[in-house]
Amino acid sequence: MANKGKILVTGGTGYIGSHTVVELFNAGYEPVVIDNLSNSNIGVIDGIKAITGSLPVFENIDCKDYNSLERFFEKHSDIKAVIHFAASKAVGESVEQPLVYYRNNIVSLINLLQLMPKFGINNIVFSSSCTVYGQPEILPVTEQSPIQPATSPYGSTKQMSETILRDATVADKNLSVVLLRYFNPIGAHPSAEIGELPNGVPNNLLPYVTQTAAGIRKMLRVFGDDYNTPDGSCIRDYINVVDLAKAHVCAINRVLEKKSKKNIEVFNLGTGNGVSVLEIINTFEKATGVKVPYEIAPRRAGDIEQVWADASLANKELGWKAEETLENTLKSAWKWQEKLMAKNKEE
Ligand code: UFG
To answer: 180 — phi, psi (to 5°)?
Structure first.
């Protein structure tokens, strides 16, 4: 396949980053990965190789370090676009260590934006989150929904990053930005060569479900069954991580082919379906045949009751649609969990 050019993927050994690197290879791009491995490991690169047959260039670089980043760009002067994933993402941790979050997530972005024009790079795709909408009044939520005050420093960093990117496009007419607002990414590559690697006790639902199914955790706690939803548990839009990764390739195609007249665009990336916590548990059990012991627990502070995407703009403009079924996505999450357990036994 013709080489469509180098794409820098910051945070490329992370959960969404690694799946995106695979899809970039599949689409004929040459992904170049930088990561400081603060929440991932170098073994992910082997997983990418096992799936694609290609080994991405990898450099252990922290985007907070302006000088290292500059040296990296000097070495790779032919990068066409950047996908910026590298960021801290744990909501609770961000409340405890706000300055770490502001420094990590904001300084990294500013460094990239200052260096990109120096090296003639005008295109950036940014990992944002549906967290910017808070609890929307109207569902499904469109990109026009008002941005609500952030409920955590993590959420603030996503909002601030969007503002920084917007301001940068005003000042630099050559800059093209795509902000991708993810809903809840779940699952793993169907090969189970790459997947989510949560550190310690998982905060997010899916890793907690698979670890409970595996017997690593005794009991899943369902945070609240008294919400104003059909079964009382919270509703989210759970999107398959490979589908999500493919949306990044569409966004890269769009900026490189200059398909839009606007130099900043925003897209929701979700399935358009709201699914409750209890529905996730039931569908997981049906799809895998494995039981998930659970109990109803008090509501979790700061949780949004329900949110799901109107993804029609991404469908229309990016030519992208979430395709995988929830059943298959949950199966992929379980296959990955089984693989992790087999690996741990070997070690
Ligand atoms: N949940 C449980 N038990 C658990 C873990 C989660 O019942 O052990 C529930 C939560 O209460 C919530 C749902 O599962 O209703 C999903 O929770 P996650 O933590 O997986 O995801 P969130 O929707 O809370 O968080 C996600 C992203 C964040 C982002 C946030 C914005 O992970 O990065 O959406 O709302 F900030």
So the answer is: -110, 120
